[in-house]
Amino acid sequence: MGVPTLGCACAVCSSTEPHDRRLRPSVLLRWKENAAGGDGERTVIIDTGPDFREQALRERVTHVDAVFYTHAHADHILGMDDLRPLSFIAERRGGPIPLYADAAAAKVLEKVFAYTFSRDATYPTRARVQLMPLPDRATLHGVEFVRIPLLHGEQPIAGFRFGRAAYLTDVSAIPETSFALLEGIEVLVLSALRHTPHPSHATLKQSVAWAERIGARQTWFTHIAHDLGHAETNRALPDRIQLAYDGLSVPVTL
Ligand SMILES: [Zn+2]
Ligand SMILES: [Zn+2]
User: Is the pLDDT of residue 237 over 60?
Assistant: First the structure.
């Protein structure tokens, strides 16, 4: 919902600590592709939530090579249309921005953004984007993205591993076979909503247990509700498992 949460005056929502202000979660992965022309800088985004534009401005995003979607809830997709100016740049460079989404997420994206995706869409300045099926493994500009099957309540969704890092959000259960795909992870970004149980999100306690089992050198929690204050929650967590915050930048081995 973002923090402050609309209509709420709790301690975290009224906190003046900048780390207690949370936009909707998203990840930007940036790397240099040595063999590439130009400056070789590559940018891949995971999820374009309602705050995508603000986040892209903050991180000075000037081009996007691809987007991966975890699932198609509003807080993960509603910024898709703000790819438009970047998609015009991508088109001039050679083609539309590929959007990797599983069948369920693609169906919602096609419906929500019918003026972009429908076969008879004629809106002249629609986003130059192309929905692509989400494979188990995709290599983009030299980096392999591995789909990590997860459950979000009843709904199967996707997490992603890239090199020695992984991004797993909106998780309520991690299938046993997915733990094997996470072996050797050094940096883990994992959702942890709040203390009270939720039908489709893990509690902080559950996420700590998974983080310990996966055993990354550093785990960052994301998708945090207003129940969890940044400073006090982090004081109660071990150093290697901490709440992330907006704008956090972490080096990862790809
Ligand atoms: Zn969700
Ligand atoms: Zn979500």
Answer: yes
Average pLDDT over the chain reads 96
Distance from C-alpha of 205 to C-alpha of 207, rounded to nearest angstrom? 5
First to last CA, the chain: 31
What is the pLDDT, as a whole number, of residue 123?
Answer: 87
Which residues have CB atoms below 5 A from the ion given as ligand 2?
75, 170
Residue 130, SS3 per DSSP:
strand
What is the distance in A from the centroid of ligand 1 to the CA of 15?
25
pTM check: above 0.90: yes
Is the distance from CB of 166 to CB of 153 less than 8 angstroms? no
Quote helix, strand, coil % in the chain, to nearest 5. Answer: 25, 30, 45
Tell me the CA–centroid distance for residue 157 and ligand 2, in Å.
11
Say how many Å lie between the CA of residue 161 and the centre of ligand 1: 18
Distance 73 CA to ligand 1 centre (A): 5
At 37 the pLDDT is: 61
Tokens 């980096």, residue located:
143
Tokens (6 digits) for 165: 């890092």
Average pLDDT score over residue span 187-198:
95
The closest alpha carbon to 191, from 207, 178, 176, belongs to: 207
Distance in Å, CA 181 to ligand 1 centroid: 22
With CA atoms as reference, report the closest residue to 83 among 102, 64, 60.
64
- pLDDT tens digits, 83-111: 999 999 999 999 999 999 999 999 999 99
